[in-house]
Amino acid sequence: MISLSEARIDREYKIKEIKDVPFKIKRRLFELGMLPNTSIKVERTSLLRRSYLVETGGYILTLRKDIVDKIFVSEKL
Amino acid sequence: MINVNLVGNANTGKTTLFNMLTGSHEHVGNWHGVTVEEKSCKYRYKEFEINIVDLPGIYSLCPLSFEEKVATDYIFAHRDRITINICDASNLRRNLYLTLSLLELGCPVLMVVNQIDKKKICKIDYSALSRELNVPIIYINATDKNCRDKISEKIIELNKQKCIGLKANYNMPYLTDIFYSCGSKLKKFDNIIDKNSRNNDVLRNFYKIKLLEDDDTIKQNLSIDYKFEEIENVASKRYKYIDCIMDKFSSKRERVYGKSKLDKIFLNRFLALPIFILILFVCFYLTFFTIGAWLSDGLEFLLDKFISSPLLNFLIDTCGENSPIVSMVDTAIIGGVGSIITFLPQVALLFFFLSLLEDSGYLSRVAFVFEDILGKVGLSGKSVYTLLMGFGCSTTAVLTARNMEDKNSKIKIGLLTPYMSCSAKFPIYAVIGGAFFGANNIFVIVGLYLLGVILAVLLSYIFEKTILKSKEQSFILEFPPYRMMSFKRTFSVLWQNVKSFITRVGTLILAMNIIVWVLSNFTISFKFISSDGESMLETFGKIFAPIFVPLGFGRWGIVSALIAGIVAKEVVLSSIAMFNYVESTDLVQSSILLSTSAVYFASNSAVLSFLIFCLLYLPCISTFSVLLKEIGVKWIFIGVVIEFLVAYITAFLVYTIGRCIECFGFWMVFCTIIAIILVVISGILVVKRIKAKRTCPFSDRCDKNCKVK
Q1: What ipTM was estimated for this complex?
Q2: Could you give the CA distance from residue B56 to residue B70 in angstroms, rounded to a whole number?
Q3: Per CATH, which fold does B2-163 belong to?
Q4: What is the per-residue pLDDT across B245-268, written as a single tens digit (0 to 9) for each?
Q5: Which of B83, B386, B480, B622 could form a Cys-Cys staple with B107, CB 3.0–4.6 A?
Q6: Distance (Å) from the alpha carbon of A67 to chain B's nearest alpha carbon
Q7: Residue-number span of the structural domain to which A18 is assigned
Q8: Which residues have a Cβ under 8 Å from the Cβ of B276 and sit 6 or more positions away?
Q9: What is the value of pTM for the model shown?
């Protein structure tokens, strides 16, 4: 299990856990479909790697690095 | 009257549908969170009057930002109303999450599926989906006027069902499963839930689900202080159900919503920022210096030829040359309003380019690119939208600060938006700057715009470190697909902006000009002054004028224009034009203004100082009224003091440096400034070194009792 911020760009992973994220943000992530066992892919990062562009649930979303750090994923088999 | 709420995810076309149904022209855009407050409008269909309420976009009934709270509070308060739930067909799975939440609440729902990107959507069996959810479904293209009848008929049908007491019976199969798995946690609060739901099963289930979602509003209403922490369970059960119905009723989707090959260029790590700057530069260049300027010249010629000159000649013939009416029309209307109206094409073009950027879907990409920079100064990438809109109009831009998730960020962005040079300030730079700097005015204008941005970023950093530390923003922002503006929309945007500009000039600015004319042409004893005597404005302006002497423009005329400009920034220019008795034609050509304004501005540095003061001093009265609602009196007061000080100090520095250059030459001043900077840096380094010496050089190895450490 690795953090999404360590994941390779353009490779598909499965969400395993979202840890230590403020409750309201965690709830929003779940509402947006970022639930355990959902596929997720990092599309690209910004120049200073402060924000990430991820593809999940059939759409594209931006997330800040401090949140991406706390999303744990495993490689999709 | 039938009341209908319009609810849906962000950027699904709610306001487009609202405009289509009601014939309104509310602001729309291809961006997450264009609508930030509820807007209602009535329309007639057959014998019925239907009142549609457009609400800000939401993803669920648990709000994260201020504008989402506006929507959820409204839905809770009016949950018996017919609710149009607009869903985007190209992202139906995620949209259905909100639909389920609305059905759990027991709203009479009419699901409207917007198929704006027809080619990008999967095939859906709407009739089967409608049967499954027990909800009427209409699929439309929100821009197509033909669907107005379809939706109105359905609204009337739903209203009839509501009137005869036929309540929608939504049986969400996953609810039993959720309540079964969380039964033990809910059991403790059964009494409270039963008491508040008054034997209403739908309401009882809704309370239960909201408690499991840890919704603050519902927990507060029921006076329950307990952490359920079951959101993952609730969300996964809802999505399991959605996936099940999507598998059953729709073909598999291959396209990813919002993904585009263009992003390889626009979001390239190294090219993204230069591309944005280039796009902005092209927009401004076309607006202010080429197309916009040509159209302005044309309009000015037409106004002079067909309106100003004939009107003035007619009045002189009928009333005589020295009549106060001729003076008022000549100075307040032709000189004052005329000096503003010629900028109509430029203002309309600026708003058009801003709408073009907004509609294209590019602004979300810009927010992503700017998150790096803005995040470092305590803002979110999302604030790019508010700041960019500030180039058009600060008043509407400040409202969009509701996109922020915490109060401090909202206050900060509200206070910083007026630093973006709004379209009303451009005529001041163009005319006054043009009169004194000639062809070099383009650099002055670019410099002024940049100065506003740099000061906003700098102040944000200072606010973040001192009085307005913001909470970490999530920066969860959905990417919309790229879209081209249609011809119809282009025309509509231009027309709306022309209309609102003419209305503003014809009402507020005209009234202000007449007031300023009266104050500057009558004495305190209300006698008309033709050549000598002190006007009311002069008496008043002379009180404040000495404050502005250190800035190089301590004359009553300029000070009075600045005070009048608080009502609307355009009035600064029209007042100066009036005091100089300059006709609009002369004013834009700038030659006469140059000679007459020499009375006011003794040097080019005084002009520059004045332009900078205009850019930075207090926002206009309509921005004040919005700020009052959004950030409160205390912060407005702090903001006013800060803005005035920033404007005063910056203008003072520029004027002083400018005067020094005029007296001692550029290189002398340049070398002195460099020397001062070097002395300051050396001072800081010396202080740091002295501080460093006081700490133990082996602090990482020595024990806790080390005194030096």
Answers
A1: 0.95
A2: 7
A3: Rossmann fold (3.40.50)
A4: 998 888 776 688 888 899 999 999
A5: B83
A6: 7
A7: 2-75
A8: B366, B369
A9: 0.83
